Amino acid sequence: MSTLVGWHVELQFAEEGNRTSAAALVRLADGSELRGRGYALRHPTDPEQLRVGEEIAGSRALADLASQLLEKAHAEIDETSGRHSHPINH
């Protein structure tokens, strides 16, 4: 039997001066929410390219979210199995 589950990830960006920040939010099927953050800094001599700052900050926020999802999954494995699991980090 297969089950279809979907997640919606929201990303929001803010830019102040040469700093772009990103906030990522995912709501999971169990009702929990995880939030990730990421930042990008533009060197003062670089041209303004908002899209590039968003891509860097967004990827870092999603990487933060991915790390939290791995931690959550392994905590659930440990709780269910009664043993310590060993996460594979990429």
Q: Strand share of the residues?
A: 25-35%
In CATH, the topology is named: Double Stranded RNA Binding Domain
Any idea of the CATH class?
A: Alpha Beta
Classified in CATH, the superfamily is Rv1738
Organism: Streptomyces niveus (Streptomyces spheroides)
Pfam families: Rv2632c-like
InterPro entries: Rv2632c-like, Rv2632c-like_sf
Protein name: DUF1876 domain-containing protein
Account of the protein in words:
The protein contains one helix and three strands, in the order βββα. By secondary structure, the chain is an alpha+beta fold. The protein has a single domain (8-81), classed as 2-Layer Sandwich (Double Stranded RNA Binding Domain), CATH 3.30.160.240. It has a three-stranded antiparallel β-sheet with strand order 1-2-3. A hairpin with a 2-residue loop joins strand 1 (8-16) and strand 2. The radius of gyration is 17 Å and the shape is elongated. The two termini are 30 Å apart. The model has no long low-confidence stretch (mean pLDDT 89).
Helix and strand arrangement:
Elements (H helix, E strand, L loop, with lengths): L7 E9 L2 E9 L5 E9 L8 H32 L9
Antiparallel strand pairs: 1-2, 2-3
Quickly describe the structure.
The protein is an alpha+beta fold. The protein is 36% helix and 30% strand.
Highlighted features:
about 90 residues, alpha+beta, Double Stranded RNA Binding Domain, three-stranded antiparallel sheet, 1 helix, about 35% helix, elongated
